[in-house]
What does this fold into?
Amino acid sequence: MAIPDAPTLDFEAGDDFSLTAWVRIDENGRSDMTLLDKRLVPTGGGAFGLDDSYPNPFNPSNTIAFALPQATAVTLTVYNLQGQKVQTLVDAQPYAAGRHTVAFDGSELAAGVYFYRIEAGIHRAVKKMTLLK
It folds into this structure.
């Protein structure tokens, strides 16, 4: 079954791509697919991810880990519960595809709950961490 308005793919052997689609299988085992997102995103053999910081809770420092499917500029920012930026850990710095870690030092901050947000190309994610004193 042809998919209307399906994008044309040009890629090399070994390249990985992801797309979002619904696949419906009827009672006779026939299937059809509806594209939800026509943007094909090179995955570089991995997936984007922002891990829970560790240790969590922490005092006074911890580590934030993330994975990138492709090389891109990364911004990693820490916010307090009021949504105010308290620290920029990484500011639009280029990172290669793969797993990375960034150290966070909260020794100058008050005890409490903080959020860390990553922006990496088309990807965004937010996680929570707790600073104990």
